[in-house]
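Bumping my old thread because nobody answered last time. Still need a sequence for this structure:
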């Protein structure tokens, strides 16, 4: 019975997880299509650098999730756990999700505040609500990172190595 319960919970979790994942992938695709449609129709009030940022972030999210699925299918579970529990992964996740959420919020707010009639669509509304979720997730990622720093293993050496390499590259480029 205990094993049956575990399998049932796993199946329920997998269904919920892949439903959410499918929704995120679908919305990223819709944002790209929506922005391309705004561009084709010549919607002047939607023109902004944030529009291109939303489009580029949406491509990044699509490619990232598709790579995640491939890695999930190919990699050994123990290696995946090491990757997804690392502090570096948490920082990258925080930056991407937080950046995407902020750009979605700022762009959809701009369209709504300017009463841009040619951009009126359910996609614009979805963009705004999804930005709230992404900003919340980025705050959670930041809190997880802080907790990992305070009580986690000493993986800060990896973070310091990355900062040192970036600083060396910056000084070499000058």
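Sorry it took so long. Here it is:
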């Amino acid at each position: 019975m205990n094993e049956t319960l575990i399998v049932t919970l796993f199946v329920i979790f997998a269904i919920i997880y892949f439903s959410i994942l499918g929704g995120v992938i679908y919305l990223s695709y819709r944002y790209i299509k929506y922005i391309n449609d705004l561009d084709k129709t010549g919607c002047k009030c939607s023109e902004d650098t944030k529009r291109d940022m939303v489009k580029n972030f949406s491509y990044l999210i699509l490619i990232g999730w598709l790579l995640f699925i491939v890695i999930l299918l190919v990699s050994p579970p123990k290696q995946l756990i090491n990757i997804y529990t690392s502090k570096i992964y948490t920082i990258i996740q925080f930056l991407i999700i937080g950046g995407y959420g902020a750009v979605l919020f700022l762009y959809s707010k701009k369209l709504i505040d300017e009463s841009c009639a040619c951009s009126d669509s359910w996609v614009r509304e979805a963009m705004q609500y999804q930005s709230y979720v992404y900003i919340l997730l980025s705050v959670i990622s930041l809190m997880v990172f802080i907790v990992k720093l305070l009580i986690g293993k000493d993986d800060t050496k990896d973070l310091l190595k990355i900062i040192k390499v970036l600083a060396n590259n910056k000084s070499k480029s000058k």
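The chain has one domain: 2-169. Let me know if any region looks off to you.
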